[in-house]
Write a structure and sequence with these properties.
alpha/beta, TIM Barrel, two-stranded antiparallel ribbon, 11 strands, binds iron/sulfur cluster
Length: about 375
């Protein structure tokens, strides 16, 4: 049984109607509980809970400090290729968009790695578009092998692969996978992904589990906020995270809350969400899943990101550039426009000023005699 089978139980149910049935009393009752059920999570993202954000924030703060302390892991994304065979209607790298396509050579990768690692970053997120020919698993393995010279933790955001392929990448040195479902509503998913292998909803949905089975140390999931009705998307994201964390307790799981940003191509966001709704989702995630990491990227504005500190965030990207080769060469189309353009050093200073510890390294890959294991 996979998560796909589990969520069939909720298909056909009118969650929106259910959500409007919660009262203030229900929310206060949920806030007194230590362990929350999926129904309690629904209460926290309901319209009734919108009037209790401050109480939710107090509890979210307590839980975050208890489980993660005042520490924020910093990482940077590096786009190593933008070839893509899919046509996701919300993305610059959509196969139909006219833009310069590029894949970094090993030498170009080294230049980017030198720039990024000079800022102190040791956690790198390597991204590609989805093209098994241009960004093959073998190419990614080569890059990962090289990346170990510069970074202590290597997370991948690439096309979905098989369990065996993930095992090979782990053996090469990758320790994390980020894979967003984009939208959990299967009908909306088909509309957003009209062409290409990404159209296979179930294969994508099962990808985080294949990575867990392969032995990835960290796995990050999320829905691209704006594509589907936000409350149901938040609910299925939370269920997915709970399913994975129960089944694979050794995997360090995290949830991201990416909001759609302007990009090349025209696309009207069907379910744009405001800051209050964003905060409500994040608080509900923290209360429902106290041990799960929460990542906030530079898609969000600097001031907004700073205000989210203490409410559940455990990981932030910094100094991000979303174009292939963009750290060495400022030209080129990014996947989306970054909102928080501060340097790594500026984010580091902000964290210190707010009493937080920026964490650059909390993991080290060690390889001995053909076997590998972790150490600090
Ligand atoms: S979201 Fe990913 S798969 Fe879709 S077009 Fe963009 S790069 Fe390609």
């Amino acid at each position: 049984m996979s998560f796909y089978d589990l969520i069939q139980h909720y298909r056909g149910q009118n969650l929106s109607e259910y959500l409007y049935g919660f009262t203030d009393r229900d929310i206060l009752r949920v806030l007194c509980k230590n362990r929350l059920s999926p129904e309690d999570f629904l209460a926290l993202i309901s319209p009734a809970a919108a009037g209790h954000l401050e109480k939710m924030a107090v509890k979210a703060h307590e839980l975050t400090i208890r489980h993660f302390g005042k520490a924020i892991v910093l990482f940077a994304p590096m786009y190593i290729a933008n070839y893509c065979v899919n046509q996701c209607v919300y993305c610059s790298f959509n196969h139909q968009n006219q833009l310069e396509r590029k894949r970094l050579s090993i030498e170009e990768f080294q230049q980017e790695a030198i720039k990024i690692s000079a800022s102190g970053i040791r956690h790198i997120l390597l991204l590609t578009g989805e093209s098994r020919t241009e960004s093959s698993p073998e190419y990614i393995e080569e890059i990962v092998t090289e990346a170990k010279r510069y970074f202590s933790s290597i997370t991948l955001e690439i096309c979905p692969l098989s369990r065996d392929e993930y095992e090979s990448l782990i053996y090469s040195g990758a320790d994390g996978l980020t894979i967003y479902q984009e939208v959990y509503d299967e009908n909306v998913y088909k509309l957003m992904h009209p062409f290409g292998p990404k159209r296979n909803y179930r294969y994508r949905l099962d990808t985080p589990e294949r990575a867990c089975m392969a032995g990835m140390r960290t796995v990050g999931i999320g829905a691209l906020l704006g594509l589907g009705e936000w409350r149901t998307e938040a609910f299925f994201t939370a269920l997915h995270a709970q399913y994975l964390s129960h089944k694979y307790p050794d995997v360090e799981l995290s949830i991201s809350l990416p909001r759609i940003r302007p990009h090349t191509g025209s696309f009207d966001i069907p379910y744009a969400i405001g800051d209050r709704e964003f905060v409500q989702i994040m608080l509900a995630f923290r209360l429902f899943l106290p041990h799960v990491g929460i990542t906030i990227s530079t898609r969000e504005r600097a001031e907004f990101r700073d205000n989210l500190l203490g409410l559940g965030v455990t990981r932030m990207s910094a100094g991000s550039i979303t174009a292939v080769g963009g750290y060495s060469n400022k030209n080129g189309n990014g996947q989306f426009q970054v909102s928080d353009g501060r340097s790594v050093d500026e984010v580091r200073q902000m964290l210190y000023q707010k009493g937080y510890q920026p964490v650059f390294k909390d993991w080290q890959y060690i390889q001995e005699g053909g076997r590998h294991f972790a150490g600090n």
